[in-house]
Write a structure and sequence with these properties.
15 helices, Rossmann fold, 442 residues, alpha/beta, 8-stranded mixed sheet, 14% strand
Length: 442
């Protein structure tokens, strides 16, 4: 099927608006077979790409250079988007300080495209958003060009499913969802994605269904993570180990999907996307109690982890105002340098208000900006362990491979808080140890 699709789309040019964590892998994927214009307003990003230097882990410099100037052309000139047959928008969809959707990046990208829009072009939004965004927000802006959606140009939604740092499930083999303004558009968009992606592409009946699919996926995760986070606190006070409960429950072959507790949720999806649905639901007169409660629980977890650490330090005979704490892991997920909305940052902020010194060690994140101040990470695990207390926040593989228990025993550490059940408690000697949710009161 792929060869027939490629024949149909021979000579096609793809435009990608936004070349970040989603847009850059998408651009490289399509440039395997098509000419790709990678547009971004950030001149810093474009200059980096033109030099063959990638700024995300999922696209190596070698991979970038293999496509650069051959099929991939980064630019900050929106005029170059005029020649594109398909333009895919992959910009951030953040929330503001009141946790309301900030569609500014999507609106600005749409205005840019409206200024160069040509007959026959298909505009596809990949950014996660609430149902109705494409037709209620983007369509009117694009039609200010004088062209009509569904007649002169075409609209579709195909939500990104990129998981930064995931080497198994990549953009090339992860199934995709597409929904267009009409059946023909949906089929055309399905075909163009299918020509570069080996996984199945599922077409849904309309754009709103595609938008709802992505938001549901992330709400599902947010609510279930919140549930297990809350249970970890409750079970802890009942003397029950949540990790053992999860292992036992996971033996059920149907109807159960394990989610795991931790410092909180991070990244650009789980802490953000549920509020998009909550916002839209309120607009049509509905409340979203589950969603908002889940957000409250997940946002509380860094505070809970800080309380655990402070309690452990007090039990170890330490004075908080004279103590130092090191956090191991500040990315929002294991084995990546992505710190977007990382709960470890909130944890560091909480601790800094109560202890003398806070530090961190993360082999993927050499420096970090917190409250407009740059924090330099410890250069080695040994330096991080030169503290009164450590908190294991992110289960990087390297933390599991270096024999942390032995290193901790040889250090001056007095208290350990393990938020991801990484350590073997039996191997920790003469140190106050607490694992989040283990039911063992210290």
């Amino acid at each position: 099927m792929a060869s027939a699709i490629e024949k149909v789309h021979k000579g096609t040019t793809i435009g990608i608006v936004g070349v970040g964590y989603v847009g850059l892998p998408l651009a490289i994927c399509f440039s395997e077979k098509y000419k790709v214009i990678g547009y971004d307003t950030s001149t810093k990003k474009i200059e980096s790409l033109k030099k063959g230097t990638s700024y995300i882990d999922d696209v190596t410099d070698d991979t970038l250079k293999r496509h650069l100037g051959i099929r991939f052309f980064p630019t900050s000139d929106d005029e170059e988007l005029k020649d594109c047959d398909y333009i895919m928008i992959a910009v951030p969809t953040p929330i503001d300080k009141d946790r309301k959707p900030d569609l500014g990046p999507v609106i600005n990208a749409t205005k840019t495209i409206s200024g160069i829009l040509q007959r026959g072009q298909t505009i596809i939004l990949e950014s996660t958003t609430y149902p109705g965004t494409v037709e209620e927000i983007m369509k009117p802006i694009l039609e200010k060009s004088g062209l009509r959606a569904g007649i002169d140009f075409f609209l579709a939604y195909s939500p990104e499913r990129i998981d930064p740092g995931n080497k198994k499930n990549t953009i090339y083999n992860t199934p995709k969802i597409v929904g267009g303004i009409d059946e023909k558009t949906t089929q055309n968009v399905k075909d163009i994605y299918q020509s570069v992606i080996s996984a199945p592409i599922m077409a849904v009946s309309n754009i709103r269904t595609a938008e709802a699919t992505k938001i549901f996926e992330n709400v599902f995760r947010a609510v279930n993570i919140a549930l297990v986070n809350e249970l970890s606190i409750i079970f802890d006070n009942m003397g029950i180990n949540i990790w053992e409960v999860l292992d036992a429950a996971s033996t059920k072959p149907m109807g159960f999907m394990a989610h795991y507790p931790g410092v909180g949720v991070g990244g650009h999806c789980i802490p953000v996307d549920p509020y998009y649905l909550s916002y839209k639901a309120k607009k049509i007169g509905h409340t979203t109690r589950f969603i908002e409660l889940a957000g409250e629980i997940n946002h509380y977890m860094p505070i809970h982890a800080a309380y655990l650490a402070m309690d452990a330090m007090i039990k170890a005979g330490l004075e908080l105002e004279n103590s130092s704490v090191s956090v191991l892991g500040v990315s929002y997920k294991p084995n990546t340098n992505d710190t977007r909305d990382s709960p470890s940052i909130s944890l560091l902020e909480q601790l800094s208000e109560n202890v003398r010194e806070t530090r961190y060690f993360d082999p993927f994140v050499p420096n970090l900006t917190i409250n407009m101040k740059e924090l330099i990470g410890c250069p080695s695990i040994e330096e991080a362990l030169d503290s009164d207390c450590i908190i294991l926040a992110v289960p990087h593989d390297i933390f599991k491979e270096i024999g942390l228990e032995e290193k901790i025993n040889k250090s001056r550490i007095k208290a350990v808080v393990d938020c991801k059940n990484m350590l073997d408690k039996k191997r920790i000697q003469n140190i106050v140890y607490k694992c989040l949710g283990d039911g063992d009161k210290i």
